[in-house]
Structures are given as structure tokens and as C-alpha cells.
Amino acid sequence: MKTQFIAGHARLPAGMAAKSLYDTLTITAEIDKKYGVIVEASCTLATEHGRDYVARLLRGHSLRDGIDELLAELDEGYFQAPICPSSRF
Questions:
Q1: I need a labelling partner for 3 at 20 to 30 A (CA). Which of 15, 33, 53, 64 fits?
Q2: How many alpha carbons lie under 13 Å from residue 67 in its C-beta half-sphere?
Q3: What is the pTM for the complete model shown?
């Protein structure tokens, strides 16, 4: 095989929708062995939209370049807010 499967786990913070389903968030990825590029990824977020977002975010990045850029994109693109009438974006 020319790819490798990796998985990582982290405890979910209180208040996340996925917390009612899982205690941890798991992210899995299939990595090209030669270049370190993520060819496919998935995670255990509660919604299909969230899972798709993370997969699109990760796909195409090379782990040889480190993860700082990925973390910055996630910090910039992910916002969790309570859903209530007084919430404002």
C-alpha cells in the first residue's frame, strides 16, 4: 500500500453537540506515505456538515509541512456559539 492510516483522539469540551454522542473527538486520516499528503480524512463530529468541513480542511495538506497552518485555518474557520435568540454573530 502507498498510504497509511492514522487516528488521533481528544476529549471534547462540555457544551459541544458531539459530547452527547461521544466523550472524545476522533480524527482519522489516510496519508500518502511518499509525500505525507492527507488523501482522505474523517471525524466524529455530530453533524454531517461538520464532518465534511473537517475532511475538506484536512484533505490535500502535507504533514511534512507541520500542522501549524491547519490549526490556524481551523481557528479562523470554526466558531461555536450557543443557539438561542440572543446569539449574535
A1: 53
A2: 5
A3: 0.76
